Amino acid sequence: MQFKRSLLLVALLTAVVFITGCVSESSTKETTSSTSKALLEQTSSANAPANINMFSAVSEGEILRLFFLLEDANGQNTVGNGEVAVQIKDSRGKDVFTQRFNVKTSDFTDYQFQLTGNGIGKAYEWRVNQKDIQKGVSTGTANITFTTTDGKTLKATATYVQIPEYTVDEIKQLYENQYNKNAKTIGTVKTKGNFEITLVKYGFYTHLKYDTWGDEVTDFRVDMKIKNIGSEQDSFITYDDAILQGSNQYKSSFNNKLDTSDMRPGVIKEGYLLFEEVPKTLTGQIQIIAGKSYNAAFHELTTEFDVVL
């Protein structure tokens, strides 16, 4: 009987030790799991994208290859989940391409320069067909915005991006069409000495500063048609033309597209004058001093047109 009690006691003690061990092991596993999760979160936070280290757009024939690399707060290459927004503008600042998509950390791959083969870290790369990019003026600028899952926005810019370009004739026609939409056609005719002067139309004219390149500028434009109705060669002078309103005077620029010098009888010249400093807010009545000529007695004949903007 005594022996049976001893066996029972031993069994009970063994069970207690086993249960205590299980509880202890379970607690240890939970503690280890919590610690690992905390370390993972800490590591993830430390390597979170803080900047776009590099962004480039490389032309490869009919394809534009784009890629970017992220870096953490310590300047180390990293990856991240987020949304990518890309915008390409031409030299005028006009949008020619936009795109938006999501990326995951697994989409970033080891990257290297194609010419040297040197690795530069993990990058995200994608390609755009040039056919999907609208025509623009000169080379473009690509802007990228990477928005992380926690709402942080990272930005970068790539310059001298090759885009489909307008031809010289297309550029001129583009701005000519815009001008014609807003210009006021008048057709007023005046005769001064040997010349018949027609004010064809006028208005503000936006164009590239150097005709087919440069920044966009807006000048005031006056289109005219000049005919020599005399019997001798003569010149209609436009170098001192001007626009007047009240006490304000605006002189024409050196970019006039109207050459009326040494015109033979019956010759007709058409073109326009440009006035660079006329404010875009100008309204009301103005006087256009279109030019001058001389009669047989060498008296100066000034051609003026009173119009309303």
Give the key terms.
309 residues, alpha+beta, Immunoglobulin-like, 2 domains, five-stranded antiparallel beta sheet, four-stranded antiparallel beta sheet, 2 helices, 19% helix
Which residue ranges are poorly predicted, with pLDDT under 50 across at least 5 consecutive positions?
1-43
**Count of the separate structural domains:** 2
* Category by helix and strand content: alpha+beta
Overall pLDDT = 86
Q: What can be said about the biggest beta sheet? A: 5 strands, antiparallel
What would the principal axes of the Cα set say about the shape? elongated
Name of the CATH first level of the largest domain: Mainly Beta
What does this structure look like?
This protein has 309 residues and is an alpha+beta fold. The chain has two domains: 51-161, Sandwich (Immunoglobulin-like); 168-308, Immunoglobulin-like (Sandwich), CATH 2.60.40. The protein is 19% helix and 46% strand. It has two helices and 17 strands. It has helices at 2-46, 168-182, and strands at 51-60, 63-71, 77-78, 82-89, 95-103, 109-112, 119-129, 140-148, 153-161, 184-192, 195-208, 216-228, 242-245, 248-251, 268-275, 285-294, 300-308. Strands 1, 2, 3, 6 and 7 form a five-stranded antiparallel β-sheet that branches. A four-stranded antiparallel β-sheet has the order 5-4-8-9, with no helix packed on it. A hairpin with a 5-residue loop joins strand 16 and strand 17 (300-308). It is elongated, with a radius of gyration of 38 Å. 22% of the residues are buried. Residues 1-43 have low confidence and may be disordered.
